[in-house]
Amino acid sequence: MSNYVLTMQGAMLDTTRMLEQFLAGVERRAYRMAVVATGLRDEALEIVQDSMTKLVQRYRDKDPTEWGPLFQMILQSTIRDWYRRRKVRNTVMQWVSQHSSDEDDEDVIEGYADPVGQSPEQQTKTAQAMVKLQQALRELPLRQQQAFLLRQWEGLDVLETARAMQVSEGSVKTHYSRAIQSLREKLEGYWP
Amino acid sequence: MNTQSEDKFLLQVKQSLDASVAQVDGDTRQRLRDARQYALARAHGQTMFVRMGSSLAGFLGLHPSIRTVALAASVTLAVLATWQITRSDAGPRVTDEVMLLSAQDDLELYDQLDFLEWLNTRDASKG
Known about the structure:
- The complex is a heterodimer of chains A (192) and B (127).
- By secondary structure, chain A is mainly α.
- Chain A folds into 2 domains: 1-116, no CATH class; 118-192, Orthogonal Bundle (Arc Repressor Mutant, subunit A).
- Helix content of chain A is 73%, strand content 0%.
- Chain A has helices at 3-38, 41-59, 67-98, 125-139, 142-153, 158-165, 169-187.
- Chain A is globular, with a radius of gyration of 20 Å.
- Chain B has one domain.
- Helices cover 86% and strands 0% of the residues of chain B.
- Chain B has 5 helices and no strands.
- Chain B is flat, with a radius of gyration of 23 Å.
- At the A-B interface, helix 1, helix 2, helix 3, helix 4 and helix 5 of A face helix 1, helix 2, helix 4 and helix 5 of B.
């Protein structure tokens, strides 16, 4: 086997280790973001897995400093896809239930109950605040949710957020500002 | 809304979100680890083809440039795909996997070219 092949194999192993380290560092935050967006644990896990797979398959050879913005872009895009699919499915289900004379009265929203399954009584004070916050975040329109989490939590600037969301910078500013206003109104009873 | 109270509110939100990450339960952490390993294994599956392609290029005495490796990997992939498909017990799943491995990457990469260009510009302006 040539030196070239050995060198290539070594580089691949290094990249794999670095990728694993990178993914281990971002996976829980990504999961939380996906839970906020979907309200469902299993769906959130699937979104994170899809995003990690896409990053690894398509961009593992990119400079590691680019993995962060790329991963955010993939994650937000995967969440939007999920959102669109759910919307179509719900619309179809609604149409079917309206046009069905059978006892198909299953509530399609029922499946979107609290994914964590923890009552506020079981939570610490911090966790209680998180439940309220998560609820308030989940009630935001998806774009506001994404703009807020990327700007405030991930610490991206307006341009980086616009790239990740694939919208204009002006749109990011509007969504972010509306999100803050809405969250303050919803949470002022819990947080000063 | 005064800036000071907004800053305080945003800080509380950030702290709460950070705390929520620390509170992810053990079962979910395990599933995230599994998801990570799955993603890396898929990549390993792809690099195996590239490695086999590279070996094939070396065996044929070709210069192992990226183009040659890619070509040889495609040949290897095509040979393996044909072999798998002609096996009597090979089902559609195998074909799907091969199609996925061979077709997915570059198309998506081209879709994101402007984003990558932006990243390069940003890095260049920082440096």
